[in-house]
Write a structure and sequence with these properties.
This protein is mainly beta and about 190 residues long. The chain is about 10% helix and about 70% strand.
């Protein structure tokens, strides 16, 4: 009986150690540079906007590949120009990217892609006109749930992670307008469990 319990304890310990070696947990913080595509009629792209991103991630390694779900706060911003105005729009999201990737060169370099699911948390709109500025507005009929695609590369330098991704969102920012975000995400992370 004691041998069975000791054997079972040893198997559980080995399984837990093996699993722990294949799971990384960490935090990340970074910046987004985004702009609009699919512009409304009568507008032009006014340039890129800046936002922040940050959150937590887990990485599950499986035979040289990995699955990396994340939960992040992310701001996407862009500008639209009309004949007599410039509109800056920022939307805050709670993102759930689910990235599939492959590690190269002993895990130092990574390439990944996968869907991102985003829930809108809020928005801000600022309009500049020749007659003055209007600040503190919000996007009417904000699309509450968005999906997109992220494609990127990364590097792991010990516990430090670096990520650079391109993102294209499939949904427009509101039900009554046509712009949608695309952009670049950069983040620095720290793995607590590696």
């Amino acid at each position: 009986m004691k041998k069975s319990i000791l054997s079972l304890a040893l198997v559980v310990l080995l399984a837990t150690t093996t699993m722990a070696q294949n799971i990384s947990l960490g935090v990340k913080l970074g910046a987004n540079i985004s702009s609009f595509t699919s512009l409304p009629t009568g507008t032009t792209n006014g340039g890129s906007g800046f936002g922040i991103n940050g959150g937590v991630f887990a990485r599950f390694k499986i035979a040289g590949f990995y699955l990396q779900p994340e939960l992040t706060f992310s701001q996407r911003a862009g500008k639209l120009n009309a004949p007599l105005s410039e509109t800056s729009i920022t939307v805050s999201y709670l993102d759930l990217p689910v990235l599939f990737g492959r590690s190269f060169f002993g895990g130092v370099f990574r390439a990944n892609l996968g869907p991102v699911f985003a829930t809108a948390l809020g928005s801000s709109v600022d309009v500049k006109t020749p007659l003055g500025n209007i600040s503190g507005g919000t996007v009417n009929d904000l699309t509450s749930f968005n999906t997109g695609l992220q494609v990127g590369v990364g590097s792991d330098l010990g516990p430090i992670t670096l990520d650079l991704r391109y993102e294209y969102m499939f949904n427009t920012i509101s039900s009554n307008s046509s712009p949608r975000f695309n952009g670049i995400h950069f983040a620095v992370g720290y793995k607590f469990l590696k």
